[in-house]
Write a structure and sequence with these properties.
There is one protein chain. The chain is mainly alpha-helical and 110 residues long. Helix content is 72%, strand content 0%. It has 6 helices and no strands.
């Protein structure tokens, strides 16, 4: 698995080589991220729970592309805001563990 920092560097270079960095403000990146998430959701919109877990090869490839788009914009946003994603995720998991103790919420979607 590639390190997030390596991917951030590759994406930074990609944007700089195309002079796109001027467009990659946190506002624009968060809006683009929202669009990509919507494109991902579109693939599942009218599927049953079962069908959503059994995608055909073509749809799965399209979903993988959308997941990649989401990750690209998320990494660019984190890079612009100097957010360490792994650290942020670790802190969020700890908050969620405290907020939702397993012995109290097991099996509940509330």
């Amino acid at each position: 698995m590639r390190e997030l920092d390596e991917l951030k560097q590759r994406l930074r270079k990609f944007a700089q080589e195309r002079d796109w960095d001027q467009f990659h403000s946190p506002k624009n990146l968060s809006m683009a991220l929202s669009v990509e998430v919507a494109e991902l959701v579109e693939h599942f919109q009218w599927l049953t729970e079962d069908k959503s877990q059994q995608l055909d090869e073509k749809t799965l490839a399209e979903v993988a592309d959308e997941i990649a788009d989401v990750q690209v914009y998320l990494l660019r946003l984190a890079d612009k805001l100097d957010v360490d994603i792994l650290d942020a995720v670790d802190k969020k998991i700890k908050k969620n563990e405290a907020k939702y103790p397993a012995d109290k919420v097991r099996g509940s979607s509330k």
